[in-house]
C-alpha cells in the first residue's frame, strides 16, 4: 500500500509546488503578495475560504471528538455555520474597507495601540493554529511510512514544505492552491463516506455498535459543554483575519458576498461528512492503535478501511487540506508583521522589493515558531480551543463593533483586546485554580474571557469620549 500512497502524496506535493511557482511570477508588489492584487473572483474565493477554514481543527480535533462522543462534535462545526450566516452581511463592508489586515482596521477605526494589541493576539492565535496543522501532517506521514518517518520527523518535514510554499507567492499562491485542494477534498470525502459505511456493515450496524448518545443532539455533553465548543468557533469565524483578508482580495463586493453563499454550503457539507466519517470509523476501529490516538481516525480509516486507490486519494485530500490550512494561518500573521510592524514603524518608505524579501523572511520565522509549539502539544482539541478563544475573546467583539456600533471607541477597544487576551492566556494557570471555585476554574476560558472583553468594550467606550466622525465613516454603510 505504501507505494500507492506515496505516489498520491507525491502528485499532490508536486502539483501544489507547481501552482505556487507559477503564481509567483505574478507577484510584483506588496498588494500582489498580501491580497493577490485584489483580483480574486468568487469561484476562487469559495474554495480558498473553504480550504482555509476546514483543516486540522475539523480533520483532527473535530474527528477526535466525534470518535469519542459522536455527532455532538457537530456543535464545534455548528458555531462556524452560525458565524457564516452573519458573515453574509459583513462581507461587503469588509471588501469596501479594502485594507490588508485586521490591525489596519483596528488603527483606522480605533487607534495605533489597538493595532499593536491586535497584532499580538493574531500572532498567538494563528501560530497556535498553524502548529497543530504540522501535527496533523506529521501524523499522516507517520501512518503511511511508520518505519521511515516518525511523527516528530513528519512535523518537521511538513513545516519545511508549508513554509516554502507560503513564502514563494503569498496570497496568490495560497488562493489558487486552495481551488485544487478544495475540489479534491470535497469529491473524495463524499465518495468515501458510503464506502466506509459499507465496510462497517451498513448504517444499522454502525448504530448498534456505538452508544445511543453518539447519535443524540447533546450526546453525553451538557448544554454548557456544547456551547463551549460552539462559541469559540462561531466567534473565530466572525473575526477571522484570514477570512477578511480574502474579502480584501476580492474583485468586488458582489464577488465577496457570492463567495460566502458557496462557502456556507461547502462548509456544512464537508464538516458534516468529516464527523460522520469519524463516527463510522469509531464503529469500525473501536480498539487498537487508533483508540490511543483518535485524532488520526480519518487517516487511519482511509489506510485500513477503504480500497487502495480511494483510500490513497482520501489520505491525500486530508493531507492537502492540512497543508492548505497551515498555509493560510502561517501567511496571515506574516502579513501582520509586514503591514502592521515593518512597513508601519520600521521602514515606512521601503520598496516593494524590500517588502517582498522581508515578507518571506517573516514566513520562515513564524513557521519556526509554529513548529516549536507543535513539538510541545499533546491534545490538538485543547490547542484548537485555546487558539480559537484567544482570537474570539480578544478581537471578534472589537471587529464587529467597528462595523456595527458607532459608539465604540479606542479606549474601549484597547481594554477589550487586553482583557480578552489576558483572561484566555492565564485562565488555566495554577493561580486561577487556587483562588476560584473548581466549578468555575474547570470551565473553558471562552465564557470568562468573552464576558471580560465585552464588558470592557461597552463600559469603557460609554465612559469615555466617542470616536471622531471620520473614524466612524470608514466602516459605515455609506462609505465607498
UniProtKB/TrEMBL annotation:
Keywords: Membrane, Transmembrane, Transmembrane helix, Transport. It comes from the Bacteria. Coiled coil: none annotated. GO terms for molecular function: transmembrane transporter activity. One of its GO terms (cellular component) is plasma membrane. The chain crosses the membrane at residues 6-22, 42-61, 73-91, 112-134, 140-167, 179-201, 221-239, 260-285, 297-320, 354-372, 384-405, 412-433, 445-464. Gene3D superfamilies: Sodium/glucose cotransporter. It is a multi-pass membrane protein. Its main location: membrane. Pfam families: SSF (PF00474). Belongs to the sodium:solute symporter (SSF) (TC 2.A.21) family. This is Sodium:solute symporter family protein. It comes from Silvibacterium dinghuense.
Amino acid at each position: 500500500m505504501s507505494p500507492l500512497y506515496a505516489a498520491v502524496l507525491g502528485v499532490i506535493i508536486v502539483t501544489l509546488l507547481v501552482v505556487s511557482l507559477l503564481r509567483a511570477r505574478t507577484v510584483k508588489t506588496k498588494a500582489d503578495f498580501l491580497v493577490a492584487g485584489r483580483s480574486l473572483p468568487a469561484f476562487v474565493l469559495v474554495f480558498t475560504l473553504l480550504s482555509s477554514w476546514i483543516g486540522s481543527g475539523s480533520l483532527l480535533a473535530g474527528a477526535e471528538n466525534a470518535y469519542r462522543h459522536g455527532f455532538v462534535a457537530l456543535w464545534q462545526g455548528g458555531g462556524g455555520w452560525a458565524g457564516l450566516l452573519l458573515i453574509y452581511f459583513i462581507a461587503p463592508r469588509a471588501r469596501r474597507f479594502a485594507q490588508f489586515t485586521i490591525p489596519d482596521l483596528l488603527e483606522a477605526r480605533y487607534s495605533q495601540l489597538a493595532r499593536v494589541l491586535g497584532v499580538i493576539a493574531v500572532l498567538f492565535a494563528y501560530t497556535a493554529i498553524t502548529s497543530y496543522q504540522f501535527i496533523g501532517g506529521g501524523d499522516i506521514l507517520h501512518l503511511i511510512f511508520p518505519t521511515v518517518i516518525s511523527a516528530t520527523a513528519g512535523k518537521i518535514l511538513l513545516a519545511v514544505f508549508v513554509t516554502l510554499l507560503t513564502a514563494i507567492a503569498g496570497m496568490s499562491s495560497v488562493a489558487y492552491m486552495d481551488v485544487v485542494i478544495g475540489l479534491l477534498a470535497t469529491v473524495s470525502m463524499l465518495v468515501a463516506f458510503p464506502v466506509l459505511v459499507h465496510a462497517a456493515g451498513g448504517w444499522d450496524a454502525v448504530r448498534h455498535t456505538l452508544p445511543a448518545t453518539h447519535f443524540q443532539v447533546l450526546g453525553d455533553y451538557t448544554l454548557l459543554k456544547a456551547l463551549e465548543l460552539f462559541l469559540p468557533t462561531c466567534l473565530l469565524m466572525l473575526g477571522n483575519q484570514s477570512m477578511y483578508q480574502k474579502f480584501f482580495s476580492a474583485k468586488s463586493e458582489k464577488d465577496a458576498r457570492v463567495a460566502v453563499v458557496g462557502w456556507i454550503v461547502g462548509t456544512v457539507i464537508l464538516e458534516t461528512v468529516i464527523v460522520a466519517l469519524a463516527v463510522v470509523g469509531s464503529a469500525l476501529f473501536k480498539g487498537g492503535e487508533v483508540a490511543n490516538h483518535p485524532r488520526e481516525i480519518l487517516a487511519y480509516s482511509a489506510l485500513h478501511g477503504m480500497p487502495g486507490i480511494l483510500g490513497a486519494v482520501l489520505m491525500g485530500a486530508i493531507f492537502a487540506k492540512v497543508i492548505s490550512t497551515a498555509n493560510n494561518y502561517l501567511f496571515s500573521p506574516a502579513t501582520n508583521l509586514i503591514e502592521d510592524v515593518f512597513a508601519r514603524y520600521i521602514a515606512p518608505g521601503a520598496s516593494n522589493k524590500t517588502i517582498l524579501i522581508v515578507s518571506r523572511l517573516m514566513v520562515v520565522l513564524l513557521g519556526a515558531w509554529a513548529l516549536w509549539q507543535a513539538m510541545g502539544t499533546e491534545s490538538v482539541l485543547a490547542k484548537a480551543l485555546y487558539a480559537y478563544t484567544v482570537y474570539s475573546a480578544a478581537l471578534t467583539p472589537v471587529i464587529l463593533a467597528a462595523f456595527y456600533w458607532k459608539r465604540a471607541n479606542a479606549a474601549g477597544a484597547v481594554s477589550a483586546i487586553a482583557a480578552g487576551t489576558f483572561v484566555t492566556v492565564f485562565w488555566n494557570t495554577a493561580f486561577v485554580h487556587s483562588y476560584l471555585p473548581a466549578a468555575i476554574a474547570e470551565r473553558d476560558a471562552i465564557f470568562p474571557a468573552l464576558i471580560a472583553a465585552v464588558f470592557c468594550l461597552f463600559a469603557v467606550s460609554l465612559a469615555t469620549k466617542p470616536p471622531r466622525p471620520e473614524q466612524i465613516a470608514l466602516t459605515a454603510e455609506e462609505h465607498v
